[in-house]
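Fold it.
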Amino acid sequence: MDPYNQQGYPPQHGYPPPPPNAYPPEGYPPQYPPPQYQPQPGYPPQPQPGYPPPPGYAPQGYAQPGYPPPNMQPNYQQPPTSIIAIAPAPVRPVFGPNSTLAFCDHCKVNVSTHTVTYVGCMVWLMFFIFLFFSPIISCLPFCIRGWYDIGHNCPKCSRRLGMFTPL
């Protein structure tokens, strides 16, 4: 006996067969005629091009009684021309472990800083902590560059622009 029925599916034991043509049901979705919109009250009907205006309305382009004729040419005035000179704004840097963009007050230019490392407070603090617990490895803080202080200098005039301390 063939394990599959005529449709190529295994037999469904205990399940009723699906009703024929069950989805979508007939007449779904319901068909409605398009809505008919009424003109809004309070607005006069607009005249068709090539037809005379409705009675009681003046033709377009003519003045209404009691009002001056409309100005056909708008009167635009040219604003006065202003020239604004924009000077480069100094960059307020956040000094970190890497070179950054900063403004040198001596050179009056924005520069990318030159970094120099120094043995700072963090290195000495860790040296004394290691010296207290294990004198053998007390020189280890001098090998870790992440604990060094970093000075940011101007590459043109070599003035100090800022410092970064990891502490």
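The mean pLDDT is 77.
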